[in-house]
Design goal:
Helices cover 57% and strands 2% of the residues. It is mainly alpha-helical. It folds into two domains: 3-41; 118-356, no CATH class. The chain has a two-stranded antiparallel sheet with strand order 1-2. Strand 1 and strand 2 (327-330) form a beta hairpin. Helix 14 (234-243) packs across helix 19 (335-342).
């Protein structure tokens, strides 16, 4: 009996037993019958096959595949307390744990893979190079770096491509929560603990390891060995990028095209800025020339209109992180504030520093 003589219900099982996405593509190009068989494969099977070659075709590994799929986790976690707890557990395993959770619960189609592959060359790679100029090796090569060559000279260690995807993943996970909040659906948001778990364990930093009094960081994920690599400083890199002049100037131009800013330093401006930043992978396209399409402008106009209509009672409440000099986070998704809260051990005056005295 030849392979093609098998009944369709048996052929349908073949793709699930392949080694990787390369084998899947080879099988689908063999003949029309197997191509049709492969076209019926579930998106979860395609994701599993892609993950088997993530270090080859989907770099940075595992951030690329997480960014491509994790928004599906967000929807489930918003709707179910059980799914929210499962997401927190996955986040506490670091990016490896989060990818495994994506593989178990999400999917990816070939059309999405092709679209993301195109975006890699037109959007993601150029932006990673730009971040390198803001916080990476190219930044340090600026003439007169320590003597006025840059306005925000600072000693940091950044992996620009990783930082770009860490930023995008935050938006994929929290973007829907941000928009639900401004639409008055405050019970349909992922809470502060979920957001902090993402920053603690998926944007790791050696200064965050161990936490501080009142701020727990488990010995899991990137900290599970108990001997965290002192070169890991992703929170510091993220904090620097988000406060850098050129980064904020670029996003100010995006906001200007969608109605401009609110009063400087107002809470509505803080929410507006965060909503624009929390647009995930797709939102990165707004930073490239010609990428701020009418579709994006219309979407941001609607977001700004909703924020403008918020009342004082809608203002995000502050949650105290228990430091000697308290730093406050909010019940709204603001990556800058959460990164800063997680890396408080960089500065003296925290409870952790006092307890070690």
């Amino acid at each position: 009996m030849f392979l093609l003589d098998l009944p369709q219900e048996l052929l349908d099982h073949i793709p699930g037993h392949l080694r990787n996405i390369e084998d899947f593509l080879a099988l689908s190009s063999t003949c029309r019958l197997l191509r049709r068989t492969c076209s019926l494969v579930s998106s979860n099977t395609i994701l599993r096959l892609a993950a088997a070659q993530s270090s080859t075709f989907f770099r940075p590994d595992p951030h690329y595949l997480i960014a491509a799929t994790c928004s599906q986790l967000s929807k489930n976690a918003i709707e179910s307390a059980e799914a929210r707890q499962a997401l927190r557990h996955a986040l506490q395993g670091g990016v490896e744990g989060l990818l495994e959770h994506c593989i178990e619960n999400c999917g990816l189609t070939l059309a999405e893979i092709r679209r993301l592959h195109e975006m890699r060359f037109t959007i993601f790679n150029p932006l990673a190079n730009w971040i390198d100029q803001l916080a990476g090796k190219q930044w340090y090569q600026t003439p007169g770096f320590w003597s006025g060559g840059v306005s925000d000279a600072y000693t940091i260690f950044a992996e620009p491509e990783r930082a770009l995807y860490q930023f995008a993943i935050y938006g994929e996970l929290l973007g829907s929560s941000s928009e639900n909040y401004i639409r008055g659906q405050k019970d349909a948001v992922l809470d502060r603990e979920v957001r902090l778990d993402y920053v603690k364990y998926c944007v790791p930093d050696s200064v965050c390891a161990g936490g501080y009094r009142g701020f727990e960081v488990l010995n899991t994920g990137p900290y599970k060995s108990g001997e965290t690599d002192t070169q890991v400083a992703d929170q510091a890199a993220m904090w620097h990028i988000l406060k850098s002049t050129r980064w904020n100037r670029a996003w100010a131009e995006v906001r200007a095209a969608a109605g401009g800013d609110f009063e400087e330093d107002s809470w509505k401006q803080e929410v507006w800025n965060a909503c624009v930043l929390n647009q995930g992978l797709g939102g990165l396209s707004m930073l490239r020339p010609g990428g701020l399409t009418q579709e994006w402008v219309d979407k941001l106009h609607e977001i700004r209109r909703l924020i403008e209509g918020l009342e004082g009672s809608d203002r995000p409440s502050r949650v105290e992180v228990p430091l000697v000099h308290p730093y406050l986070t909010t019940d709204f998704a603001i990556l800058y504030e959460e990164a800063l809260a997680c890396m408080q051990n960089m500065w003296p005056g925290t409870y952790a520093a006092d307890s070690q005295a």
